[in-house]
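User: Round two. Same drill as before: sequence, then structure, for each protein.

Assistant: Same drill it is. First protein:
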Amino acid sequence: MRKTRAKKRPLLPDPRFNDPLVTRFVNNMMYDGKKSTAFKIFYDAIDLVSERTGEANGLDQWKTALTNVMPHVEVRSRRVGGATFQIPQQIRPDRKIAVAMKWLIGYSRKRNEKSMAGKLAGEIIAAAKEEGAAVKKRMDTHKMAEANKAFSHFRF
């Protein structure tokens, strides 16, 4: 790697909640540069969450869901003497958020509800209660890291 690492560009906060984390989530959810559509889906999902749970602020539920989905360790492959080992490693805080967002969006898309806003709302509510496919993925990742703890001395 010869050149310097690219600088992190600051994200503009979203118009409704004034939160850059929401913008980051919407950027991950967006298809074909359709940001306004992605924002509409997200805001509809947040409204559905607050409606279904009976809470005034659906954004708090979303943040709780995101925290519940965030993994703390992951396994990385490493070749040592012709064998490939799965080595557990701590995750950087920035990557934790990115992985949690990708899992939440990915498993939302696989749900069986009518609209994407409904799917996202369902996954957010499930993740906030520590249920759902995204939380299960985090548990599986942690289990795999725990199972491969014996190879942690190969850490690079």
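Second protein:
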Amino acid sequence: MEIRAARPEDCQTLHGLVRALAEYEKLTHMATGTVEQLRAELFGERPVIEAVIAWLGSEAAGFALYFHNYSTFLARRGLYLEDLFVIPQARGQGVGKALIGHCARLAVERSCGRFEWTVLDWNRPAIAFYESLGAQVLPDWQICRMTGEALERLARATALTSSPQRP
């Protein structure tokens, strides 16, 4: 197994893995991003995400996509794992553990105060896996999300009361 940082030429493969994750989570209707958008976010003028791909020989077996967040309480940045996915035929071979371990090492090397991610409440195998690694599944926190029209409406409603942010 080899884990390496995604390269521009890997974007089609990475996008395929993202689509496979969306299928697994029964969320294909929400997976609207394109290969070009993924490439721009990974390798554009101002990259905002990073990704690694696990390879078993010449086959992409899984990926981890992550970015930095920030903890005001710790006054330190953290590493946020947006997605971790291993293709079904590669599960049970240590690919997931290697990918999440890679991210944990990055968090330590970069002096991050936290390494965090979310997991769907119905995904009992993933929860058990994460707990076996020593992760705490926090019961008291709920994700808040705003998209589409609700996001646009709030942005318009507050446009007159706030000044523009720097890029």
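The mean pLDDT is 94.

User: Perfect.
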